[in-house]
Amino acid sequence: MKQTFLYALCGLAAAIILGGCSGMNALLKSGKPELIYSKAMEYYQKEKWQRASTLFEGAQYYYTGTPTEDSISFFNARCKFKNRDYDTASTLLDDFRRKFGRSAFIEDAEGMYALCFYYLSPGPSRDQTMTGHALIAINEFMSRYPKSDRIEDFKKINAELTERLHDKAYINAYTYYKIGRYKSAIVALKNALKQYPESKHREEIMYLIVDASYRFASNSVRDKQTDRYLTMLDSYLSFKEEFPESSHIKEIDRMAKNARDYLDRNNKDNNI
Description:
This protein has 12 helices and no strands.
């Protein structure tokens, strides 16, 4: 009995779905743009994004070149956005802002366009191309609409994405350090510091520059060790000057002592 009831429910659900699809297809083939558009708006207001989008796309052909064209284009793009299809939404919104720069929907369209890249931006361990696109779009929006209601939210997003780039630069550099590629680590760490001087990782990056420089010098051939220890001591002094209370001080003091001892043993001038 229970099994028969379940079969009946499944059959009813299938019939509803098929009936809905059949009704949509019939409507799209009706050749009645006003009816298609009206039904699309009905679904849109009910937040049935996929159905609304299908009908907006069906109606778009009929309204090309009319005053309603921008509305249909915008609503369709917003359906994709609300349905979390950010790739498609960003493409549609980019087309919209290029074609309908004077539309009443332009501010909303450009705001959504920026948010598409924000939602597509992955965590800092992955490629940050989308994060770069998001930052460009968000800053363009804030520049064009400085009085927008979205400004404060976009400022927070901008800070979040910028920090994500800081994290990515740090992770990339630390990866070189972790696998013992100290020369590459030093270059990557210095680049991260130069590119993002206000990074929350600044202390750790400067410490790793000292540590990686010490290890690089220690593992070098004898005729290159002197110059590399001197370079390491320069980094050491810069770190101590900026972070005199750091928890790393004892450790880097030990490294500096070893470097100086090496220089003294080899009768090298050491005024550091």
